[in-house]
Specification:
Length: 168
């Protein structure tokens, strides 16, 4: 169960998790099969942020450590795997640890930053309920827009390409 901290300051995540289990027939069934259960715990998830630095001296951060979690979906494994590949590329094309750090920051900025920033902008608009209503209405009126928005949320189209992909 995930909750955006900036959207619900007073939510008890463990209570929300318990409510989810009790309200979902499949999870209730699975819970009846549990042999041992520990007390649920809450952990923060590192999400995208503006001005993100993916290096700290000669340390090259990837995945959650690099704040590469999608700001809209909370998904992170795809970016984590890609970031590992790009770090390997940055190391491979470098002659020194300092150059590797510079190359990884550059690869991050060219491969991830535009999409993560677009996701942050979209998330900021979603804070207004009328924006969600407008988006849903627009998607119902225009199947092409609905398809592109759905593809962006599924990770098939980068967020920063959604608007430009609708023009023609």
């Amino acid at each position: 169960v995930g909750v955006w901290l900036d959207e619900s300051q007073k939510t008890n995540v463990i209570q929300l998790f318990k409510q989810f289990i009790q309200s979902n027939p499949q999870t209730r069934h699975l819970l009846s099969k549990v042999i041992h259960q520990d007390t649920p715990k809450v952990y923060p998830l590192a999400t995208a942020q503006k001005g993100n630095r993916v290096t700290d001296g000669n340390i090259l951060k990837i995945g959650d450590a690099a704040n590469l979690t999608d700001p809209l979906t909370g998904e992170g494994i795809a970016n984590a795997v890609l970031s590992g590949l790009y770090v390997a590329q940055a190391i491979n094309m470098s002659r020194s640890p300092e150059m590797a750090a510079e190359n990884w920051q550059s690869l991050y900025e060219s491969r991830f930053e535009a999409d993560l920033r677009a996701g942050l902008r979209i998330k900021a608009f979603r804070k207004f309920s009328w924006m969600n209503t407008l988006l849903i209405w627009t998607m119902k009126q225009n199947p092409r827009i609905a398809t592109q928005v759905s593809r962006a949320v599924a990770g098939l189209v980068p967020y920063h390409e959604v608007l430009s992909s609708l023009r023609y």
